[in-house]
Amino acid sequence: MTIKEQPKEMTRRQFLSTVGKVGGSVAVFSLMGTMGLLSPETMKAAEYEPPGPNDLHLSGRSGKKIIILGAGIAGMTAAYELGLAGYDCTILEAKSRSGGRCWTIRGGTSEAEIGSGTQTSRFDKGLYFNAGPMRIPQFHVTLEYCRKFGVAIEPFNNVNESGYYYNESVGALSGQKVPKRAAKADVRGYVAEMLAKAVDQNALDLPLTAEEKMKLVDYLKVEGDLNPDLFYKGSARGGYKDEPGSRLDAGVLRDPFDLKSIINSGFGKYFSNEYEYDQQMMMFHPIGGMDAIAKAFEKRIGNRIKFRAEVKEIRQSSSGVNRVHRHGIRPGAGNQRGLLHLYHSAFRLEEDSRRFFSRNVQGDSEH
């Protein structure tokens, strides 16, 4: 007798998780509203659009208190903008410094991580390391604040063709420092050669006319620096064995790596990083370290920051909002709102906290 196994019923959580994987958070939010899983207040908050500067100034909300958790760039930006609109903001920061991940290490900087001792930087004077963000794309609003606060910036060289790639267990080029320009020239050269020959020999099923195929081959010649016979034999783009000198000294080109070695190296998959929208030149950074941005914000709202104010959780009760600090519970005023600018993994939100944020935060500002 064959027993047919009954399919297991899908739980509501599993169903929503599946929808999220396919349609993203917007699809899940919409479906939860349809299923009646969201409160009317939360559904109303979903339609909320953040106000512009004029809307905030004309709202007449002066005196309302807002608690912001985290004095990172996001938290300080919120305090700065809301302060301009007349809100009374207080930032609670667990550390003794502002900036959050926007952190610059200099000589004498100390840091104690959980489960380890204190480490102190021994950089020489004038040296520093941006341990968090280190560059700003030209379209980021951060640059507007730099301009407004007088933070001096300079170009950040995000592409260095003289840098090296290094891989292990990748064949003939394992354990070798390979100049980026050499790897890029060879990968592009060989790929262009293969495509050009395939197009020239009608080996590809392309919806192109003969004239269009000829134009494609011409492009691939230039892209890969191919010779007239569509072979890649090396390129000045990849560098020289002997650098060129005066007009009569053309230099000696480096020999390209062989096709198998350069393909097995895996270097080709690294090229696309500089093509990404937020990595394209020009890039910028503050002169002297990224923390110049944090310092500029702190200069303007520093009196609103409470350092070493570690908040363990937030509780919503009938008497109002209570903030549970490291040293005990501190009650909050009934008209207080909260903005959370921390990673959820660093902060514990109980169910009543979630209701608090849905009911009290989303109606005033995004969080």
- Spell out the helices and strands N to C: HHHEHEEEEEEHEEEHHEEHEHEEEEEH
Helix share bin: 25-40%
Strand count, sense and barrel status of the largest sheet are: 4 strands, parallel
Name of the CATH architecture of the largest domain: 3-Layer(bba) Sandwich
The total of helices stands at 10
Number of strands: 18
Question: Order of strands in the sheet with the most strands?
Answer: 14-2-1-18
**Mind telling me the C-alpha Rg?**
29 Å
Mean pLDDT: 79
CATH class of the largest domain: Alpha Beta
Q: What is the CATH T-level topology of the largest domain?
A: FAD/NAD(P)-binding domain
At the fourth level of CATH, the homologous superfamily of the largest domain is FAD/NAD(P)-binding domain
Spans of at least 5 consecutive residues whose pLDDT stays below 50 are: 343-367
What spatial form do the alpha-carbon principal axes imply? extended
Determine the structural class based on helices, strands and strand pairing: alpha+beta
